[in-house]
Design a protein that fits this description.
The complex is a heterodimer of chains A (258) and B (101).
Chain A lengths: L6 E9 L5 E9 L5 E7 L7 H12 L3 E5 L10 H10 L5 H17 L3 E10 L1 H12 L5 E5 L31 E6 L7 H13 L4 E6 L16 H18 L11
Parallel strand pairs in A: 3-4, 3-5, 5-6, 6-7, 7-8
Antiparallel strand pairs in A: 1-2, 2-4
Helix pairs in contact in A: 3-4
Chain B lengths: L6 E11 L2 E13 L9 E7 L8 E6 L1 H23 L15
Antiparallel strand pairs in B: 1-2, 2-3, 3-4
Classes of the chains: A alpha/beta (258), B alpha+beta (101).
Chain lengths: 258, 101
């Protein structure tokens, strides 16, 4: 058997919030085994090529991964144009995102290759959404928040009809292990906000681990950005796969994190 | 972290997009993470016609410094252009400045 296993990736339609049908990008290993599932939550600019690479990376490491297009209700034209329209409208409602994440989880669990375990991961606003979803949904076995800002909301004016509750205020309902990955130079979340989030998790006795990186700011995993920090990103990905390996009982091939 | 902060400017104008020329009535302006640029943050402007649904746009992503420089050049172009168009037409060999159009 080859060290590197094959994978298959495709866009397909899943049911999301309120049963609405929309696009998602799905990748999984091709070998006949059971795999943990991961829902990948994209950032505010949209459902972009880097997120598709992340989905395939999980498949490469032995996970069935899916990224729902959180803006699918806006149509099927270019994801960047759709993202711009959603931004102009003030983003999407938290409840809708949580419903779409739940749809991704249900899809993964329904597949014959599922080992029954589901993880969430999100980046930037998706990190916040992943935190929120893990505090709102049952059946999450592990969650990874990569530099999600506004988990703590310092200005009440930032709460509105679409984002009515600060995720930190739902932390008591978190019932899955949480991995947090942050850059110490990030402006949102700041190092202070990360510390305050950790203090709440600690106080509530939650199962969490936070990793903070010097010399890194926001989005330092993102290979398409000047923000990319290879040394910190490689270590951060190792932390992610180690975490999922422990909590999702991955049958993943021991491919070194890249 | 993406900010959701968008400044909206009402416009009278037109822009050329993927379907050719279109009238525009709005510029959505924001400083946030880009979609295409490799910069961490960009000053982005989406020119749209919200009166017609805002589905098409002409988009730009600029570095902060170049966006500020552009603002200055726009002001300079307006100042010099309006001055030129307001000035009397000068004709003859001594003319230092002329206008066309």
């Amino acid at each position: 058997m080859s060290y590197y296993q094959g994978l298959q990736a495709e866009t397909l339609t899943i049911r999301g919030h309120n049963g609405d049908q929309g696009e998602a990008y799905y990748a999984r290993p091709t070998r006949a085994e059971k795999f943990p599932g991961v829902v990948v939550v994209h950032h505010l600019p949209g459902w972009d090529e880097w997120i598709m690479e992340v989905v395939r990376k999980f498949a490469h490491h032995g996970y069935a991964a899916i990224s729902p297009h959180l803006y699918f209700r806006e149509g099927t034209d270019s994801p960047d144009d759709i993202g711009a329209r959603v931004r102009s409208a003030g983003g999407v409602a938290d409840a809708q995102v949580v419903g779409d994440v739940a749809g991704g989880m249900a899809f993964l669990r329904a597949q014959p290759n599922s080992n029954g375990k589901i993880g969430l991961i999100g980046f930037c606003s998706g990190g916040r959404h992943a935190y929120l979803a893990a505090c709102s949904l049952s059946g999450v076995d592990a969650v990874v928040d990569c530099w999600g800002g506004n988990v703590i909301v310092d200005n009440p004016k930032d709460l509105n009809a679409k984002r009515p509750v600060a995720p930190i205020d739902l932390t008591e309902k978190l019932n899955s292990p949480l991995l947090g990955v942050f850059g110490n130079d990030d402006a949102n979340p700041t190092a202070d906000q990360v510390n305050r989030t950790e203090a709440v998790l600690k106080k509530l006795g939650k199962n969490y681990e936070f990793h903070r990186y010097d010399g890194a700011g926001h989005a330092f995993f993102n290979t398409t950005r000047d923000a990319y920090r290879p040394e910190q990103a490689v270590d951060g990905w190792r932390k992610v796969f180690d975490f999922y390996g422990r909590y999702l009982a991955a049958s993943a091939a021991n491919v070194a994190a890249e | 972290m993406c900010s959701y902060i968008v400044e909206k400017a009402a416009l009278v104008g037109s822009a050329k997009g993927r379907k050719g020329w279109m009238r525009i009535d709005t510029a959505n302006v924001y400083f946030d993470h880009p979609y295409y640029s490799t910069l961490d943050h960009v000053l982005a402007i989406d020119f749209t016609n919200e009166g017609e649904g805002g589905r098409d746009r002409v988009a730009i992503e600029l570095s902060a410094d170049s966006a500020r420089a552009l603002v200055e050049r726009i002001q300079a172009a307006l100042a010099s252009g309006e001055a030129a168009h307001a000035a009397p037409i000068t004709v003859g060999a001594d003319s230092k400045q002329s206008r066309a159009g």
